[in-house]
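Dock adenosine monophosphate; give full complex structure.
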Amino acid sequence: MRLIFMGPPGAGKGTQAKIICNEKNIPQISTGDILRSAIQNGTEMGLKAKKFMDAGDLVPDEVVIGIIKDRLKENDCKNGFLLDGFPRTIEQAKALDVLLSDMSISLQHVLNLAVPDNELLSRLLERAKIEGRADDNEETIKNRLLNYNKKTLPLLDYYKNSGLLREINGLGSVDQITNIIRETLK
Ligand code: AMP
């Protein structure tokens, strides 16, 4: 199964992605996780990405497109994959279309977890306390939400037009939302 999980920061994409990937036995490909590990390993890509991430800005398209291009070629993607946090711009979505068509495969579902902005802000501030992520402070969070609304929201129409979009209400318990996702993927 080849899936995309979309949704604003704090919508619970990562949590749900982990559960679904376990159940379907497919890799969870999170560009955010890959970038954070590049920063930790001090790679050139990590150094380049860090200033964007710390400010709550999007990392340039060519960097994340390059990450996905390499990652999708790996063996564990043969049975499918779940993209978590990619694409985030129309440019990225178009590049993904080209990549997939070159590989002669296509997406099955694009799930969007919808949560209102005021709920996201309080969830993200709470997560900041627990996880201590460098980009989970109030100013950066507001910028991430702004970027999401400006650059990523237009993608919903892009996938609606291709008939792949499945809207999921992201308000509720983790279990409730997992169940809705399971039903949607059936
Ligand atoms: P995430 O863990 O998905 O919230 O991503 C954390 C940060 O990594 C984002 O705020 C961006 O700075 C960067 N990032 C992750 N994925 C992408 C992407 N697809 N395009 C651009 N920047 C990204």
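Observed: The chain has one domain: 2-27+74-185.
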